[in-house]
Design goal:
By secondary structure, the chain is mainly beta. The protein has three domains: 92 residues, Thrombin, subunit H, CATH 2.40.10.480; 134 residues, no CATH class; 186 residues, no CATH class. The chain has three helices and 33 strands. Strands 26-27-28-29-33 form a five-stranded antiparallel β-sheet, covered by helices on one side. It is globular and about 70 Å long. The mean pLDDT is 90.
Length: 444
């Protein structure tokens, strides 16, 4: 896997400059680096200032959209992520303060290329504009989705093949059918879009909004993928974590809590082929509880208390060929600390394997400020790694930024085996480390 950067600089990594491109300095550089050795593969200078970027590969029924879309200055630029070529370059639609995520939607203009929907909110309303994925030209007019501001949005496809834009409002989560939006943008453009009979039964007669989950404190909405069919929706509110069925948009379970830290993550604790949910709860006194919830029922499968050290990334997991995941999270065991107020330098990382539910592998290997962290599969069946971006603590501050990649198993030999709970396992420390060394990884 290779890595894409967006940087603000005067000079690029391949001897190009802002001045050479006729741009003010410093400008925006988009560049790709080789995931193996960090060598620069390509770079592209763009006009400042940078607002947002989204990259991704989208495929459905032969339709593809494999660009990076960047909002910068008052412009939108689509860049081929494989070679850095500019696919198209257009002025940003006026009056729309768009934000990520960009919604990749089915082909609306009939050119056999998936299209793009930009969504933006101000203090009074939420609006959407469709753009051709092939040329960037706006398709139809800009549509007002809601007369109030929405916090976030997602595109969801139901089991019947109908698309809904999910709007996160201060009163809950609501869906608005894509066909309704397309019809308002341009008459007749909705013809090829399916209607969901179940969803439309619950749509508001005036607004068309379908209530998915009503709550006055929805904070996050995440997709939880399944082996087949549409993903389920995980919602974090002010007092609970709830899972909504992606097929019928109905509540499956809820877990009561009032103190979720950061963003939940997913992994396989057991072998039922359903993703389980990892949440971190603030339990006071600079302490957090790492909890794994059953994806089917919402019951607690496993938990451990750690000191909540500053600048700790969210939990992560990587799937193994044995149908469960190896989990990674950050913090510090209370027994390891000399103070109730942990410092960033006290931060440890932990590996957890469900086969050894009373054991953690503790590693201390990162003392710098972490800007971004990702655990990922590198080679199917063999290698997994975590990637760290470290650098200055303050956004916009000058300093050295370091991207490092470390294989997950590299930490095992020097890790400390921590036994938790009252029960004891007969396995020696060497047996446990060998179990981690024997792991093979997969993408599901």
């Amino acid at each position: 896997m290779d890595i894409l950067f967006v940087l603000k600089n005067t000079n690029g990594a391949m001897n190009s400059t802002c001045a050479d491109a006729g741009l003010p300095s410093p400008c925006v550089f988009v560049l790709a680096v080789d995931g193996t050795d960090g060598a620069t593969l390509w770079e592209r200078p763009l006009a400042p200032d940078f607002h947002w970027a989204q990259c991704g590969l989208y495929e459905e029924k032969g339709q593809t959209w494999d660009c990076c879309l960047l909002s910068h200055s008052d412009q939108l630029t689509a860049i081929d992520k494989y070679n850095g070529d500019v696919k198209w370059h257009r002025p940003h639609p006026p009056g729309l303060n768009s934000t990520v995520p960009v919604l990749i939607v089915p082909d609306l203009d009939g050119d056999k290329v998936t299209d793009v929907a930009l969504v933006g909110s101000d203090n009074t309303q939420t609006r959407l504009a469709f753009l051709s994925g092939k040329t960037g030209v706006q398709i139809g007019s800009t549509v007002t989705l809601d007369s109030t501001e929405t916090v976030n949005h997602l595109l969801h496809r139901t089991a019947e093949g109908s698309y809904y834009v999910l709007l996160q409002k201060d009163t809950g989560l609501y869906g608005l059918a894509l066909w309704r939006i397309a019809a308002k943008a341009k008459a007749g453009m909705e013809v090829g879009l399916k209607k969901d009979k179940h969803g439309e039964k619950h749509a508001n007669a005036t607004s068309g909004l379908v209530p998915v989950y009503e709550s006055d404190s929805v904070r996050q909405v995440l997709n939880m993928r399944l082996t087949d069919g549409p993903p389920n929706l995980l919602l974090v509110t002010g007092n609970e974590v709830a899972l909504v069925d992606g097929k019928r948009l109905q509540l499956l379970w809820r877990f009561n809590t009032s103190s979720i830290l950061g963003k939940p993550s997913f992994g396989h604790f057991n072998k039922d082929d359903v993703l389980d949910v990892v949440v971190e709860e603030d339990i006071g006194s600079s302490t957090k509880s790492v909890v794994i919830l059953d994806g089917t029922s919402g019951r607690v499968l496993w938990e451990v208390d750690l000191l909540a050290t500053p600048n700790s990334p969210r939990p992560a997991s990587i799937h193994t060929t044995n149908s469960f995941s190896v989990f990674m999270f950050w913090g510090m065991m209370p027994s390891e600390s000399n103070s109730s107020e942990p410092f960033e330098s006290d931060r440890h990382s932990y590996l957890f394997l469900p086969l050894y539910s009373k054991v953690l592998l503790e590693t201390t290997n990162v003392v710098d400020h972490i800007i971004s962290f990702k655990a990922t599969l590198l080679e199917n069946g063999r290698h997994a790694a975590y990637i760290l971006l470290t650098g200055p603590e303050t956004e916009g501050a000058e300093g050295t930024v370091v991207l490092s990649k470390r294989k997950l198993k590299q930490d095992v030999p020097d890790s400390k085996v921590i036994r938790i709970g009252n029960s004891r396992t007969p396995d020696t420390n060497e047996d446990i480390k060998e179990a981690f060394n024997r792991l093979r990884f997969s993408d599901w």
